[in-house]
Each structure stands twice: as C-alpha cells, then as structure tokens.
C-alpha cells in the first residue's frame, strides 16, 4: 500500500465517502477522498488536464498524496490501458538513475551482464511518473530534458536512438523556483516540466476532510487486521482536528493504523499524537506497521503477565488463534526477557 496520502490505494481499499452535493469534477475521481474547498481546486485542475497529453508538475509537502494523484491523472487519461511507470529520483544512487531511466546494453559497463530496458521505453504510450524530481543530479537533468524535448532516448552503450511517446508527470516537495535561482536545478528543465502545475494542499489547510479520511483508514485497517472497530469517538476526532499535521495525510494514516492495533473495544476513544523529541522540534518519528504491532502484542502480554492462551490470555484479548499469535511473536522477535524487562520499567 502506497502511503503517500490523498486518494485510496487501488489494491483493496474501498471508496471513501462523498457529499451528495460534490462538484462534478470530484465525481470523476472517486478514488480521491476529500470534498473541502481546497480539494475542489485540485479536482478542477485534474478535470482540465487529465485527458490531455500535457506535462504535469505536482507540488506539495511530503505526505500530501502526489503519487496517488499522479495515478488518478493517468487513469483518467487516454493512456489508462497501460500501467503508469514510476521512478523515485531520490531512492536511487546517481550512478544508477541513468540506467533506470534510459536502460543499457549488455557490456556497456562493469556488471551490465544483459540488456536492460529503461523506464522511458517501458512507459511508451503510457505515463512516466518522476517522483522527487528535485533530487535529480545536474548531469542527468540535461539528458532528461533532451529525452522530453526530442521524444527519443539512447540506452547506455547503445548507438541507436529510440523513439518514445511518453506523458510526463513529475512531483517534488521542493521549491523548484528557489532551486533554479540557487543553481541546483536547470531553468530550462524547470520550464519544460512546469507546463501545468498543481499544488496539493497540506492536511492542516483541509481539516474538513479529516473525518472522512480518518473513517476510511479505520475501516481499511480494521478489516486488514481482523478487528471489529467501527468508528472514532467524538473526543478523539476533536484531537485529530486540533493537531497541526506536519506529516499530512500519511501521518494521519499511520496514526489511525496504530490506533486500530491498540484499541481494546470497537470504538477508538483516544489517539496518541506524536510529540517532537527534545532538541529536535522538527523531527517526528513514525513507527512502521510491524513496530506498532510488536509494541501492541508486548503490551498485551505484559497485561496478561506473559500468558498466551486460555481465559484472559493474550490470544483471547487479541482475538487471534494461539498458533497465529505464536507465529507473530516469533516473526516479530518478541522474547520473554523483553516482556519481563518491560514489566519492571
């Protein structure tokens, strides 16, 4: 499940709630949850550009849902019959990005044991999503600009130009105008990408969408974890609405996931909101699903004094079969010594 935020994932998620009075633009993008004023601006922009072949630049903070909006654009376009191809420009070493984008021929460099087809070729007649485009090294920005302008690429070590018909959607959480002024991003590439910019609003500017998003995540994670949790209490929702959301929708999703795991009844009555670590006011750490699950199982085992099965045992409280719980304990690396040490804290 991709956790970038705004829209639902295509795998396994159900459609979120929508107002009966939602704008026609919103009705075209049922996979996106949100009916507030800020999201209506996004819907209008999507309805203007999705069916075209124009380049789109998605702007916004981390966790606002740029990849999922890119997917929504692709699925509303004439290229929807082929899968969208994604490249995360920040996740690959600079030495590998060129091969990832353009491919290489066998023997073109040490370790090139066979021909590799690059993402541009894979995205022929489809959409290429360049995530974190602001992280692309300067030397590759030149080659990317040429590929976009000329609509052709060359594999590393190749001698033949390959024509490609690719629609580009790029995304970044950086201020590219500042990056251009300070010489870290080429101005000609920026202007080529900035054909149709769409800025995705931070969650703190679309608080009216928080109840629908939270309810959607509760339903999803309750089902995924076999929990009978139906809603969030009014007091807990007030906490969500008052929180500043530095991590945007992704942060909300992670917090709801943890709350589902920690809930002891069918209503979530409290959500433990993160606080900044002393001396690191801008750094908030979010636990993974496995870490949340491990902490929850340890807490229940402590409550049961290490009892796994039988009346009042951890398996009964967690509503799991004994074999399933034992398997999770082993997989998550939970030991009796850890439980005892936690009891003494």
UniProtKB/TrEMBL annotation:
Region Disordered: start-end pairs: 1-25
Ranges of residues in domain Sigma-54 factor interaction: 32-261
The keyword Membrane belongs to this UniProt entry's keyword annotation: no
Bias-annotated ranges (Basic and acidic residues): 1-24
Keyword entries, A-Z: ATP-binding, Nucleotide-binding, Transcription, Transcription regulation
Pfam families: AAA_lid_14 (PF25601), Sigma54_activat (PF00158)
InterPro entries: AAA+_ATPase, AAA_lid_NorR, Homeodomain-like_sf, P-loop_NTPase, Sigma_54_int, Sigma_54_int_dom_ATP-bd_1, Sigma_54_int_dom_CS
Domain of life (superkingdom): Bacteria
Stated name of the protein: Sigma-54 factor interaction domain-containing protein
């Amino acid at each position: 499940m991709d956790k970038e935020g705004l829209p639902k994932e295509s795998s396994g998620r159900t459609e979120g709630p929508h107002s009966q009075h939602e704008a026609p633009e919103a009705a075209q993008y049922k996979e996106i949850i949100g009916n507030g004023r800020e999201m209506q601006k996004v819907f209008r922009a999507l309805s203007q550009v999705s069916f075209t072949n124009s380049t789109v630049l998605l702007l916004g903070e981390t966790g606002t849902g740029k990849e999922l909006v890119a997917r929504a654009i692709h699925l509303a376009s004439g290229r929807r019959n082929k899968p969208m191809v994604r490249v995360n420009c920040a996740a690959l070493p600079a030495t590998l990005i060129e091969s990832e984008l353009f491919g290489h021929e066998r023997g073109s460099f040490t370790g090139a044991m066979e021909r590799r087809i690059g993402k541009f070729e894979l995205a022929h007649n489809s959409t290429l999503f360049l995530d974190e485009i602001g992280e692309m090294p300067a030397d590759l920005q030149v080659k990317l600009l040429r590929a976009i302008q000329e609509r052709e690429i060359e594999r590393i070590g190749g001698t033949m130009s390959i024509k490609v018909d690719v629609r580009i959607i790029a995304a970044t959480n950086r201020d590219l105008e500042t990056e251009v002024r300070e010489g870290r991003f080429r101005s000609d590439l920026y202007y080529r990408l900035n054909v149709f910019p769409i800025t995705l609003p931070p969650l703190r500017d679309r608080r009216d969408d928080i109840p629908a998003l939270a309810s959607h995540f509760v339903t999803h994670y309750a089902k995924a974890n076999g929990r009978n949790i139906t809603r969030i209490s009014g007091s807990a929702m007030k906490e969500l609405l008052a929180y500043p959301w530095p991590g945007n929708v992704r942060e909300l999703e992670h917090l709801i996931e943890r709350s589902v795991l920690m809930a002891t009844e069918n209503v979530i009555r409290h959500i433990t909101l993160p606080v900044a670590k002393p001396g690191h006011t801008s750094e908030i750490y979010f636990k993974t699903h496995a870490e949340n699950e491990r902490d929850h199982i340890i807490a229940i085992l402590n409550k049961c004094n290490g009892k796994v099965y039988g009346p009042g045992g951890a398996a009964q409280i967690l509503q799991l079969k004994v074999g399933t719980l034992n398997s999770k304990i082993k997989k998550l690396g939970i030991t009796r010594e850890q439980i005892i040490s936690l009891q003494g804290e």
